[in-house]
Write a structure and sequence with these properties.
Elements: E1 5-6, H1 28-34, E2 39-40, H2 45-55, E3 58-60, H3 66-70, E4 79-81, E5 91-94, E6 97-101, H4 106-111, H5 119-125, H6 131-136, H7 139-145, H8 153-158, E7 162-166, E8 171-175, H9 176-179, E9 180-182, E10 185-186, E11 193-200, E12 207-213, E13 224-232, E14 238-246, E15 253-254, H10 256-262, H11 292-311
Parallel strand pairs: 2-4, 3-4
Antiparallel strand pairs: 1-2, 5-6, 6-11, 7-8, 7-11, 9-10, 12-13, 13-14, 14-15
């Protein structure tokens, strides 16, 4: 398989047919002598996973987390730029699921017509950095970066999302809640690409809301954030609820006890149904943005407001 690679680390400043190129004949020993790493830009998903398997390179998608994490350093090892993989970009309906391609940007999420249960995800998308970041940052990148404060995680958890991981050996799907294992930790193998996110369409007519608290209105890392998806019957009572909270534990978490207690609650009483003990599974920390106690208190208010917002939309 052709392997287009060059030695530069800035894809915006170079191209794959640059005259200074390095071919398969270059041994690992030669590369190590010259201190070179390879920038690889496959055109298909099959090419991409093959390159990951053969080089052990790092995946570059939107780059909005990749480059800031480097600081003043150059990338260590090879870089596999997957931005040309159009087959894993975009949003479609497939087999009772809404499929979000891994390379789908937050701007695409905002602009794509979607059922009302995705309103929380759209609201979260508008909170991801600046408009420029939303134009470049990808849904898969947000999930694989696995920050406890990742804006996209609580809405997708509340939607019971699954992720699809593809490598040379296999393709597998697993729940997002299982995929995220800790602060900056996931079950993604280094040879895998997160190719898609699948959201079941069962609650597509539910109402949803997303609220985020930070030290300022825009361009801020969350102190706390909550996503709620609620289905009401014709009488205005809750038939099903899903609530996920981020920035208050190593990974965002569903509030299952609250979800159970909300069933049969009328919309007019939904705020009062939320108690402090419903948030007992959270493990917030003290940091430069807020104390753990403040996070708990603020989260209780955010959950109540998010559910109240959902009730106001029926």
């Amino acid at each position: 398989m052709p392997r287009p690679w060059i030695s530069s680390f800035r894809p915006d400043l170079c191209c794959t047919n640059c005259c200074t190129s390095y071919t398969n004949s270059q041994s690992d020993e030669q590369r190590g002598f010259w201190g070179l790493s390879l920038y690889l830009k496959p055109k298909t998903l099959d090419e991409a996973v093959s390159l990951l398997a053969s080089t052990g390179g790092q995946v570059l998608a939107g780059g909005t987390d990749f480059y800031p994490a480097l600081g003043d350093r150059l990338p260590q090892g090879d870089v596999v730029d997957i931005t040309a993989l159009e087959q894993i970009r975009g949003i479609s309906s497939q087999d009772n699921f809404i499929k979000i391609g891994g390379l789908t940007t937050w701007t695409e999420v905002i602009r794509t017509p979607l059922p009302s249960c995705f309103d929380a995800l759209k609201a979260a998308a508008r909170e991801v950095g600046s408009v420029q970041i939303q134009n470049r940052g990808t849904v898969a990148g947000n999930l694989c970066n696995a920050s406890p404060a990742a804006d996209g995680v609580p809405p997708l958890l509340a939607l019971d999302a699954e992720v699809e991981l593809v490598s040379v050996e296999r393709s597998r799907r697993l729940p997002l809640a299982q995929f995220l294992t800790g602060n900056r930790k996931t079950l993604r193998d280094s040879k895998e690409i997160l190719s898609a996110i699948y959201v079941p369409q069962r609650l597509e007519n539910a109402v949803s809301a997303f609220l985020k608290l930070g030290a300022r209105r825009y361009l801020v890392i969350s102190i706390s954030m909550v996503a709620a998806v609620v289905q009401f019957d014709r009488s205005g009572r809750v038939t099903e609820a899903r609530v996920a909270l981020g920035s208050c534990s190593a990974t965002a978490r569903r509030l299952f006890a609250l979800e159970r207690d909300l069933v049969e609650v009328p919309a007019s009483s939904i705020r009062e149904a939320v108690r402090a003990d419903h948030l007992s599974t959270l493990s917030p920390i003290d940091d430069v943005r807020a104390t753990a106690d403040y996070r708990r208190d603020a989260s209780l208010i955010l959950v109540r407001r998010a559910l109240e917002s959902c009730a106001g939309r029926i």
